[in-house]
Design brief:
By secondary structure, this protein is an alpha+beta fold. It folds into 3 domains: 153 residues, no CATH class; 64 residues, SH3 type barrels (Roll), CATH 2.30.30.60; 84 residues, 2-Layer Sandwich (Alpha-Beta Plaits), CATH 3.30.70.100. It is built from 11 helices and 10 strands. The strands form 3 sheets. It has a 5-stranded antiparallel β-sheet. Strands 8-10-9 form a 3-stranded antiparallel β-sheet. Strand 3 and strand 4 form a beta hairpin. Helix 10 runs antiparallel to helix 11. The chain is elongated.
């Protein structure tokens, strides 16, 4: 990077500074003076440019309502002060011919620090993009979905792994190390690891699918096959569900993406289909009153809406009525309260009218044969 700097400075700007030094004889101090001048000048230039750019960026950021310019300010401020001195010091060392081992160590430290600093700047922009596009308040309640935070953490981790992998390859390449075989080896090793960890990777990518597709969120009440409960955590490999019995159910993310999931939290209202039967001995005029009795019950129940009620069929031991009504809430406890009020009211109305509920019975007729 600074290979020709020393020769250009000495040849163009510095005269020969040869002095007699005791025990050493004549010594040319032009390299030492040139190195010192380059170190001081570069350090001053770096600091001056940084201050100008930083102050300009801050003034522009104060005039806007967007957050991207704030990210630029944070990226500039993330550059450590000693990094400027390190760059100037590395440039100053180019005036001297150092042993190969020492030169390799210094170059390795220099390139590593530069890569580390560039990655730090890139992470500032990655975090901004993640916050802007992943950690969003989608339902407007002022709270970021915890599953979005999990997904953003995974994206940030993957981004850092990719950046560091590219950075290390860049450092090794600039140190004269052949990286082609290394990249090929990493590719083969990656394939082997992918086969060995295909179950884990399947759950990992399934977690991304759960986030972007959003079949459910933390806090939703879901049913998976014969299991049901409230989602408590959507992790990288598994999802934790608190069942109605109180235990924690751990389900792999890959299973969730292939299973049929019922999400009751997304339900705006419940549609209930219910049946009851009355005895065959019920007089015809009272049978015809049943529809009106049910309709009157629902006019007095808040939060419920009757859809229909019909004399549906003749059962084995009862006259079957079917009704459909809607509970205008997704809350299960509220549904059960309305169901209970309806049951009590129907029981009271039938007792007042002398209508009896049917239960499984059999009537045996006997005939005497002479």
């Amino acid at each position: 990077m600074f290979d020709n700097l020393s020769a250009n400075v000495i040849d163009s700007y510095l005269p020969a500074l040869i002095y007699n030094v005791p025990y050493f004889g004549d010594y040319d101090f032009s390299k030492i003076v040139g190195a010192a001048i380059v170190f001081v000048v570069l350090t001053a230039i770096f600091w001056l440019v940084r201050m100008v750019i930083l102050q300009r960026a801050k003034s522009l950021a104060a005039k806007t309502t967007t957050t991207f310019d704030d990210v630029i300010v944070d990226a500039i401020e993330s550059v450590k002060a000693w990094v400027y001195s390190l760059v100037a010091f590395y440039a100053a060392l180019q005036f001297f011919t150092l042993p190969d081992t020492i030169d390799l160590i210094i170059s390795a430290v220099f390139y590593f620090v530069i890569v580390w600093q560039l990655i730090s700047i890139a992470v500032c922009f990655v975090d901004y993009l993640i916050t802007r596009f992943l950690e969003k308040d989608e339902d407007g309640d002022g709270v970021v979905d915890p599953s979005a935070a999990t997904a953003s953490n995974m994206v940030a981790l993957i981004a850092q792994i990719v950046l560091w992998s590219l950075g290390i390859i860049f450092v090794l390449s600039n140190l004269g190390i052949e990286v082609t075989s290394l990249i090929a080896g990493l590719g083969i090793g990656g394939i082997a690891v992918a086969f060995a960890l295909q179950g884990v990777l399947s759950d990992l990518f399934a977690s991304f699918s759960l986030y972007f597709d959003k079949p459910f969120r933390i806090g939703d009440f879901i049913v998976i096959g014969s299991d049901m409960g409230t989602v408590e955590k959507i992790g990288i490999k598994s999802t934790r569900i608190r069942t109605l019995q109180g235990e924690e159910l751990v389900v792999s993310n890959a299973e969730l993406t292939s299973a049929r999931v019922q999400n009751f939290k997304r339900m705006e209202e419940r549609r209930i289909v219910s049946k009851f039967g009355i005895t065959y001995e019920t007089p015809e005029d009272k049978v015809k009153e049943v529809d009106g009795l049910v309709e009157n019950i629902f006019t007095s129940i808040d939060g419920a809406r009757l859809d229909r009620v019909h004399f549906a069929s003749f059962g084995d031991s009862a006259l079957i009525f079917e009704l459909v009504y809607h509970v205008e809430s997704s809350d299960y406890a509220e549904f059960m309260d309305i169901q209970q009020r309806y049951n009590f009211a129907l029981l009271t109305a039938f007792n007042q009218k002398g209508i009896e509920f049917a239960y499984p019975t059999q009537t045996v007729y006997t005939k005497q044969i002479s």
